[in-house]
Structure formats: C-alpha cells, structure tokens
C-alpha cells in the first residue's frame, strides 16, 4: 500500500502566488496541500514568501515608520506642532516591522486552516511521475511524500548577486539585510536605482544615512513614463538621494567595517566610493534549484524561469507555474492573480489575468504608480494619443495634507478616447491608481472618468481633473 499522502493539488511555495492558489483550489473543492520552507527566527513556519517576510510588507512598515520620523523632524512644524527632543528608536522600529510580518505569517496559517489547506513546512521537490500525476518529497522540518495530479510551482525569486560581491548580509546586503540594519549607517551605498534601491534608499535616508545610488543605465527609471521619471529624479535628488546614472561597477572590496566600490562614472572617469553598508538591488532570479526539475524534465528558459504559456501551463501536463518564477512582472498581485486563475483552470473554469492592467507602485515619497502604456511607448508604437495632466499643487486636499508634489497624467486614444495609460506621482498614488485600473479593465474613456462625481476635497479629484485635461477642459487649473 502506498504511504504517499494523496492530494488533488499540491502547491510548492507559500508566497502570494502559492498560498493564494492553494486557498482558491481548496475553495473549489480540491484536496489541497501547500509546501513552504520559509522559517522564522525560531525555526517555525513563516508562510507568505518574499512578499511577507522580506519584501512588500516589511518594506512598507519601514517606509511608514521612517516617513513619520521625517515628518516629525521637518513637516510637523508647518502644522504648528513642535516636537522637542525627537529621537530615533531603531530597535523599536524594527521590532514593529517584525511584529507586522508575524501577524501576516499567522494570518496565512489561519487562512489555510479555515480553507482546509494542508500545510507542510519544508522543502518540496519533484520525486517522480506516478499514477498520471507526480510524487513530491517534502524535506526539512516536515518529512513526507505527497502525490497529486496537479502541481503548482510557486517558488518565487531571490536577489541577484553582483559577480565577485556575494551577499553576506552584514556589509553587502540583499533586500533581506537591507530591511534589518541594526544601526543607521552614516554612508549607505546602493547599486541599482530600481524599485528596491529607491524604496530602501528612501527608508535609510529618512533615518539619517547619506545615501549614494549607483545605477548602470544612463536613464532613470526607464520603465516609468519619462515625464514622471524626470519629476521623480528631481524630487529624490532634492531630498538628498545622490543618484549617479550610467555607472559601470568594477571591483568591490570589503574591509572590516566598510565596503569600497570602484566604478566608472557616466563621463568615463574612474571613481572610488566607500560605504558602511552596501545594498545590491539589481533585479532578482527565479528559484528552481533543489526542486527536482531534472527528475521530471520541467523546462526552464535561458534565464532560469519556468517556461509557461499564457495560461501558466508548463512543459509537463498537470504542472503549472505562477508568480516570480515565471515571465512577467515580479509583483505580488500579479502572482496572486495567476494563482487564482490557475486554480480555476484546474477546475475547468476560465481563469483570466489581464497583463495590460497590472498596476505598478513605487512606495517612495512621493509615491509613483502607473497602469498601461507610457507616453514613450505610445510614441514608439506610433499610436495617436491625447495627454492630460493635473498637478497636486492645484488640489485642495493635497494642500491640506501639506503634500502638493507631483501630478496625475492621463493618456487616451486620439480617435476613441479609450484610456491607454495613467501615471501618477504624488501623495497616495498607490491608492489612486486603482480607479484607473478599474477604468481600463472596463475599457473606459477619459470622458467617462471626467463625468464621474468625485468627492471633494479628495486627492481623487486630481484624477478627474487630469481626465478633463485630456480635452483641455480641466476646471481647477
Ligand atoms: P515568493 O514570495 O518569493 O514566495 C515563494 C515561496 O516559496 C518562498 O516562501 C520560498 O521560501 C518558497 N520556496 C521556494 N522553493 C521552495 C521549495 N522547493 N519548497 C518549498 N518552498 C519553496 N511586490 C509588490 O507587488 N508590491 C510591493 O510593494 C513589493 N515590495 C517588494 C519589496 C522587496 C524588498 C522585494 C524583494 C520584493 C517586493 N515585491 C513587491 C515583489 C514581491 O515580493 C514578489 O513579486 C512576490 O513575493 C512573488 O510571489 P511568489 O509567490 O511568486 O514568490
Ligand atoms: P529592478 O529591476 O527594479 O531594478 C534594478 C536596477 O538595477 C535597474 O535600474 C537596473 O538597470 C540596475 N542594474 C542592473 N544591473 C546593474 C549593475 N550591474 N550595475 C548597476 N546597476 C544595475 O530590481 P530590484 O530593485 O532589485 O527589485 C526587483 C523586483 O522586485 C522589482 O523589479 C519588482 O518587480 C519587485 N519589487 C517591487 C516593489 C513594488 O512593487 N513596490 C518593491 C520592491 C521590489
């Protein structure tokens, strides 16, 4: 008799892609297991993946805390609030962050119980094919053999190292170390002016570090709408982030308490910079090692991602893959949507993910958020478009908040007025972008948004005004 534990669906990885896929599969009536190896400091299970443990959640906790600290130091006085003896308690700030992470880990374990997902704490690996399905070994804290007809690979990604400068999480930090520095470094170096570099650079600058960002490309935030990226570059520089573009990174050498980076700057001059800590945030690589992919012959592409079709089917029947381990943006909400869609496809339903309306947010101050096409892409594609912008400077709620930086920008088809892209830099851009996502999902026109009643005074009026500006009829600017 087989000693395997049989399931309908086994999910490998308990990040946003995996745990959400497992919950949806269980909701659809499948006997479902989820395997995740992440362990907390005490060795216990910590589901939620990169996002919960060393990504979205802890970074936003520190961004919020550091923003409070900066406001207390600079912005409160304008409101007539004088703060005497302002002090940073970094230990408490990090403890709060860890507490929020734990709440999320516990929340996922609760959701597994509620939805009858069987959780295995350990490493999952394909062990072979059996009975029209697959056997999966679990090793680590839990040791088991599972079998299932359907397997969802949701093993996520890890920070990419610079050749010759492996992460030690003491001096050379990935996102993991960057979220847990125990004393504010006087000189913080960041390699890569992408999402992590800007978010983590902002956190530590607000807390007092002198931050230098070295970016390889000559353009700043190349994927962002050029007008918005220009504005962001100006604002971040004004805040004190020293951003150097077009740098070619050379040797990185570690001393006892500092790390030295040699690089050639954009003018071709050799430079040397020494830092107390160095964050390397140059992108992420998919996790597929130790997964037993060779055993079953799962196909990877030349960059190591699991090969999938538009519907997340891999090269093997019954094996699916979602999230950071497959093509597409490395975003938690993209992983979740894929997870739900795959569970529904296994159930014979028509799960769907619209990649054209996946929003992006950079949680700096001001926040940057966008959905759809940028102006430079529309130009490159030869699409005729109309643009409308509205500055937060002219928005009453932004003035009351004391945060009038940035703008909302609409791009709409010149002939049909369909919204093609919305780009926001400014307060609460992360929340404001949802309206644009909904509008684009329903293929709305800018006129549709322009004619909808928005609460006053609210930041969302800037969205309406930018939509009005597409036809040059904004009312408050
Ligand atoms: P992951 O979250 O990486 O989860 C994979 C899980 O699988 C992990 O727990 C891993 O330990 C486990 N695993 C791997 N192999 C095995 C195995 N063989 N057996 C068992 N378990 C295994 N995205 C956003 O949308 N918004 C943000 O604000 C945001 N902020 C971020 C901030 C930082 C600093 C970082 C690094 C990332 C951030 N991201 C953000 C990206 C987001 O974290 C990822 O896109 C998301 O976590 C991907 O989800 P996933 O489920 O594919 O993989
Ligand atoms: P990234 O792709 O956002 O940025 C990497 C940057 O490093 C790029 O600007 C790139 O040009 C630069 N770079 C690459 N190699 C370099 C080199 N050798 N020298 C100098 N610069 C180099 O990657 P990042 O910041 O590591 O984040 C990884 C991913 O995690 C993001 O792309 C995003 O998908 C996700 N993430 C999402 C967040 C959010 O949604 N708010 C927050 C943080 C991460």
UniProtKB/TrEMBL annotation:
<dbReference type="InterPro" id="IPR004099">
    <property type="entry name" value="Pyr_nucl-diS_OxRdtase_dimer"/>
</dbReference>
<dbReference type="GO" id="GO:0050660">
    <property type="term" value="F:flavin adenine dinucleotide binding"/>
</dbReference>
<keyword id="KW-0963">Cytoplasm</keyword>
<feature type="domain" description="Pyridine nucleotide-disulphide oxidoreductase dimerisation">
    <location>
        <begin position="358"/>
        <end position="467"/>
    </location>
</feature>
<keyword id="KW-0676">Redox-active center</keyword>
<comment type="similarity">
    <text>Belongs to the class-I pyridine nucleotide-disulfide oxidoreductase family.</text>
</comment>
<dbReference type="GO" id="GO:0004148">
    <property type="term" value="F:dihydrolipoyl dehydrogenase (NADH) activity"/>
</dbReference>
<keyword id="KW-0274">FAD</keyword>
<protein>
    <recommendedName>
        <fullName>Dihydrolipoyl dehydrogenase</fullName>
        <ecNumber>1.8.1.4</ecNumber>
    </recommendedName>
</protein>
<keyword id="KW-0560">Oxidoreductase</keyword>
<feature type="binding site">
    <location>
        <position position="124"/>
    </location>
    <ligand>
        <name>FAD</name>
    </ligand>
</feature>
<feature type="binding site">
    <location>
        <begin position="330"/>
        <end position="333"/>
    </location>
    <ligand>
        <name>FAD</name>
    </ligand>
</feature>
<feature type="disulfide bond" description="Redox-active">
    <location>
        <begin position="51"/>
        <end position="56"/>
    </location>
</feature>
<feature type="binding site">
    <location>
        <position position="283"/>
    </location>
    <ligand>
        <name>NAD(+)</name>
    </ligand>
</feature>
<feature type="binding site">
    <location>
        <begin position="155"/>
        <end position="157"/>
    </location>
    <ligand>
        <name>FAD</name>
    </ligand>
</feature>
<feature type="active site" description="Proton acceptor">
    <location>
        <position position="456"/>
    </location>
</feature>
<dbReference type="InterPro" id="IPR001100">
    <property type="entry name" value="Pyr_nuc-diS_OxRdtase"/>
</dbReference>
<dbReference type="Pfam" id="PF02852">
    <property type="entry name" value="Pyr_redox_dim"/>
</dbReference>
<dbReference type="InterPro" id="IPR016156">
    <property type="entry name" value="FAD/NAD-linked_Rdtase_dimer_sf"/>
</dbReference>
<feature type="binding site">
    <location>
        <position position="60"/>
    </location>
    <ligand>
        <name>FAD</name>
    </ligand>
</feature>
<dbReference type="InterPro" id="IPR036188">
    <property type="entry name" value="FAD/NAD-bd_sf"/>
</dbReference>
<feature type="domain" description="FAD/NAD(P)-binding">
    <location>
        <begin position="7"/>
        <end position="339"/>
    </location>
</feature>
<dbReference type="GO" id="GO:0006103">
    <property type="term" value="P:2-oxoglutarate metabolic process"/>
</dbReference>
<feature type="binding site">
    <location>
        <position position="324"/>
    </location>
    <ligand>
        <name>FAD</name>
    </ligand>
</feature>
<feature type="binding site">
    <location>
        <position position="215"/>
    </location>
    <ligand>
        <name>NAD(+)</name>
    </ligand>
</feature>
<dbReference type="InterPro" id="IPR023753">
    <property type="entry name" value="FAD/NAD-binding_dom"/>
</dbReference>
<keyword id="KW-0520">NAD</keyword>
<keyword id="KW-0285">Flavoprotein</keyword>
<dbReference type="InterPro" id="IPR050151">
    <property type="entry name" value="Class-I_Pyr_Nuc-Dis_Oxidored"/>
</dbReference>
<dbReference type="GO" id="GO:0005737">
    <property type="term" value="C:cytoplasm"/>
</dbReference>
<keyword id="KW-0547">Nucleotide-binding</keyword>
<dbReference type="Pfam" id="PF07992">
    <property type="entry name" value="Pyr_redox_2"/>
</dbReference>
<feature type="binding site">
    <location>
        <begin position="192"/>
        <end position="199"/>
    </location>
    <ligand>
        <name>NAD(+)</name>
    </ligand>
</feature>
<dbReference type="InterPro" id="IPR006258">
    <property type="entry name" value="Lipoamide_DH"/>
</dbReference>
């Amino acid at each position: 008799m087989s000693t395997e534990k049989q399931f309908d669906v086994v999910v490998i990885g308990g990040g946003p892609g995996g745990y959400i896929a497992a919950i949806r599969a269980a909701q659809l009536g499948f006997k479902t297991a989820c395997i995740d190896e992440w362990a907390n400091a005490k060795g216990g299970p910590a589901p939620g993946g990169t996002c919960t443990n060393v990504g979205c959640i802890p970074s936003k906790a520190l961004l919020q805390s550091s923003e409070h600290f900066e406001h207390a130091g600079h912005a409160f006085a304008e409101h007539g609030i004088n703060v005497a003896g302002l002090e940073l308690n970094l230990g408490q700030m990090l403890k709060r962050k860890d507490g929020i992470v734990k709440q999320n880990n516990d929340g996922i374990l609760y959701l597994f119980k509620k939805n009858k997902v069987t959780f295995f704490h350990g490493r999952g690996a394909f062990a072979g094919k059996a009975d029209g399905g697959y056997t999966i070994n679990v090793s680590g804290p839990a040791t088991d053999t599972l079998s299932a007809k359907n397997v969802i690979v949701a093993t996520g990604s890890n920070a990419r190292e610079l050749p010759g400068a492996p992460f030690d999480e003491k001096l050379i930090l990935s996102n993991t170390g960057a979220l847990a520095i125990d004393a504010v470094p006087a000189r913080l170096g960041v390699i890569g002016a992408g999402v992590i570099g800007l978010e983590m650079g902002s956190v530590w600058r607000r807390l007092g570090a002198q931050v230098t960002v070295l970016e390889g490309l000559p353009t700043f935030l190349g994927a962002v709408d050029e007008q918005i990226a220009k504005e962001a570059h100006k604002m971040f520089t004004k805040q004190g982030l020293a951003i150097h573009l077009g740098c070619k990174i050379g040797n990185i050498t570690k001393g006892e308490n500092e790390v030295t980076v040699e690089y050639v700057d954009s003018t071709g001059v050799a430079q040397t910079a020494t830092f107390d800590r160095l964050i390397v945030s140059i992108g992420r690589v998919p996790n597929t090692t130790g997964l037993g992919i060779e055993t079953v012959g799962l196909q990877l592409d030349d960059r190591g991602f699991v090969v999938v079709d538009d519907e997340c089917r891999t090269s093997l029947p019954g094996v699916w893959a979602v999230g950071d381990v497959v093509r597409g943006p490395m975003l938690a909400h993209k992983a979740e949507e894929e997870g739900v869609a795959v569970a529904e496809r296994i159930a014979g339903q028509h799960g769907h993910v619209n990649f054209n309306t996946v929003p992006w947010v950079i949680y700096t101050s001001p926040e940057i958020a966008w959905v759809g096409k940028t102006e430079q892409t529309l130009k490159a594609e030869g699409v005729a478009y109309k643009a409308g912008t509205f500055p937060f400077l002219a928005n009453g709620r932004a003035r009351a908040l004391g945060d009038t930086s940035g703008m909302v920008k609409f791009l709409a088809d010149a002939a049909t007025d369909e919204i093609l892209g919305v780009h926001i830099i400014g307060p609460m851009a992360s929340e404001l972008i949802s309206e644009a996502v909904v509008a684009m999902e329903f293929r709305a026109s800018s006129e549709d948004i322009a004619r909808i009643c928005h609460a006053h005074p609210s930041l969302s009026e800037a969205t309406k005004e930018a939509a009005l500006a597409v036809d040059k009829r904004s009312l408050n600017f």
